[in-house]
Amino acid sequence: MTVGVHPLAGFDKLLHYKVPETLRAQVAVGSLVRVPILNRQLLGIVGEISEPKDFPVDRLKSVAAVVYPFPALPPDLLGLARWMSGYYAAKLDGIIEAMLPAAVRNAASLKQEKLLSVTRPLDAEELAALTKRAPAQAKLYAFLAQQFKPQKKSLVLSRLDVTAAVVTALVKRGFVREEERRVERIAYSDDWSTGEVVASQPHRLNVEQQAAVDALSVKITEGKFGVTLLHGITGSGKTEVYLRAIHDALAAGGGVIFLVPEVALTPQTVARLRGRLEAIAPDHRCVVWHSHLSEGERIDGWLALATGEARVVVGARSAIFAPVHNLKLIVVDEEHEPAYKQDETPRYHGRDVAVMRAKLTGALCLLGSATPSLESFSNAQAGKYGLLELKERVDARKLPHIDIVDMKIEVMRQRGFTSLSGKLVDAMHDRFAKREQTILFINRRGYSSSMLCTKCGHVEECPHCSITMTYHRADERLRCHLCAHERDAPARCPSCGAPEIRWRGMGTQRVEEAVRRVLPKARIERIDADTMSKKNRFRELLSEFRAGKIDVLVGTQMIGKGLDFPNVTLVGLIDADISMHIPDFRANERTFQLLVQVAGRAGRGDRAGEVIVQTFTPQAEAIQFSRHADFAGFAASELKMRKDFRYPPYRHLIHHLFRGPSEEKLKFYTEQWARHVEKALGARVELRGPAPSPIEKIKDEYRYQVWYFIDGVTRVIADLNALRLAFAWPDDITQVLDVDPVNLS
Ligand code: ADP
Ligand code: ZN
Asked: With a 6 A CB cut-off, is 235 part of the ligand 1 pocket?
């Protein structure tokens, strides 16, 4: 038997090995193996069982070891890795490494689990004899005899500075016992880092929920590939629908992957899910998968899934690679979230990979959101995805009333820039008096500076690309980051002539201070990246907020994900403009999503909620449609713009970033390259750029970019990548290809 192995060490090809008789039973496609390469032993994945004809079998080297007695990458994952490698033009070994965390590749726990303990007490004579003949053994024995529990072998050896031979000798004498035991460290115990336990009883489904659950049930029973978009407004009870679908999949003997955008930011969703799963399926443990797991937790969770002991995993994007057996259902909650896109190599999109895995496995992929991405929504409209809608909030609760405050008027009234409008201040006073709670959001995304007139709300856009122009302080010019169109930055507003054409957003801290001034007696807390860096602080703040100990919570929109606090009756969005004027064709979509999601945090209890949105451009469509959470209206208008400019979802986009120490050289080569691509690929790509990146320079490296607009990725990517690899790049220019990027700014 010979096998073709993909080594995990930067060799991007299949190497052939013999399999010794003793290992045959354990080797299959997908096995993680150790193989000799040059003078080293490296890890690899068996890609095929082969009978190579080109060279004599006896000249092949042999597989040295098999790490797990089952395929570490089941066939659907290996297929997925190959697809990703092609689609994202990324190396296969890097993808396999993303699928198999380091702890798993190194079989971390398997080595650490040898435990030592004494078998019996020694009498004085025996001890004296041992001390005399073998002092190292005596030292080790004495140490172990003092411990209450068996000790980890590796730790004992390093601590006492003795060799493994000493242990062997003691075992031989019968004084010490060596055992291998698996220690339970799986992150489904209740102590995982961000767990806030939320009691969660099954609800009686309302009519819409029931219809959705029934439709899903049929699909799950069919057991075929399909994608369904669950579009349910905020507070419509989507989680309950997910839970029933999960129940169905488990009942059908299947496994489930549940993806959330970020585990640390969605503790409520995860806690509710786990709480309920234990109720509906007590014999199914739920593995939690996130980036803060210890090595031990990670490998134990992975093993529990790989052996079929656990069948449900909840986690962030990389949980899509969990080795779940007989996968029947993948849920992607908040499928519109940009956090699903990985921003380092391999730059995959968790949602898109989920759809592909479902396809390769024959599972149902359920995408859920109150504000679906236009990509998923147009797929549903085209009939490629099924569509289920929840149009009412549970218990006939009302969507909150949204008030738009025009900050241009506010600036005039208060004679200068202000972070809190009169209306918001009044509303906060009112809630404080009634002991109801308020959340204030500041959207702090975006470093790029647009020019916004605080008098008339005018923002300069690129005439060719319909995205905001970016202000470059160095040479006082405005540039478009898609097509490189540029002009002098105007000193006065081009629309109304006012001199106030300059605007800065404000941070959480400034807003917090402003709130303290108007509500000196209230308890105010701030959650942002600074607070989040302190361990457990986020969880503590959320429980205090739930307990009613905090009156006003000020934070970036990252706190807005999936929160469900019944006593919140006022939500303020301080600055809707930040997201609207980033140089990205998705700026409107992001703004609409932000507004609807943020507003959705209000009025989730018995009392109606109110939302106040402050903006300099109240007439903008993203804002107007969000007033009534009119997704259909927004999508229709936005899709029209996308179609006119032939942006996604009507075409795909690839971003190509170039970095180098010399700007001249970068410019020269990227221009050469652009011409080369246009010539070679002709009408198959529409190329824009090269243009400087929004951040032109990082750590003394200049950055340029090229955009490719294409009809289908698979038709172009292989050729584009081959051209790129063959092009004569100088050594000091590095580059990154990003397929289907989610952030253009
Ligand atoms: P969404 O994710 O759609 O915003 P959630 O799933 O968070 O909504 O549900 C909102 C609230 O409604 C939760 O507190 C949930 O427990 C509750 N809920 C869900 N379904 C029902 C139901 N059928 N009857 C009563 N309450 C429900
Ligand atoms: Zn442009």
From this structure: yes
Closest ligand to 390 CA?
A: 1
Model pLDDT for residues 649-665, shown as the tens digit of each residue? 999 999 999 999 999 99
Instruction: Identify whether the C-beta of residue 123 lies closer than 8 Å to the C-beta of residue 145.
Output: no
pLDDT tens sequence across 410-441: 888 877 667 899 999 999 999 999 999 999 98
Flag whether pLDDT at 447 surpasses 50: no
Confirm if 17 and 114 have CB atoms less than 8 A apart: no
Three-state SS across 285-327? CEEEECCCCCHHHHHHHHHHHHCCCCCEEEECHHHHHCCCCCE
| Residue to probe by mutation, ligand 1, list 244, 268, 369, 564, most atoms within 8 Å of CB | 564
Residue located nearest, by CA, to atom 13 of ligand 1: 237
Question: Is the distance from the beta carbon of residue 389 to the nearest atom of ligand 1 less than 6 Å?
Answer: no
CA 546 to ligand 1 centroid distance, Å: 17
For range 536-543, the mean pLDDT = 77
The rounded Å distance from CA 479 to ligand 2 centre is 8
Q: Cβ distance 685 to 678 under 8 Å? A: yes
325 in ligand 1 pocket by Cβ < 6 Å?
Answer: no
Q: Is 711 in the pocket of ligand 1 (CB under 6 A)?
A: no
- Ligand at minimal distance from the CA of 206 is 1
**Percent of residues, the chain, with pLDDT higher than 70:** 88
* Mean pLDDT across 547-551: 91
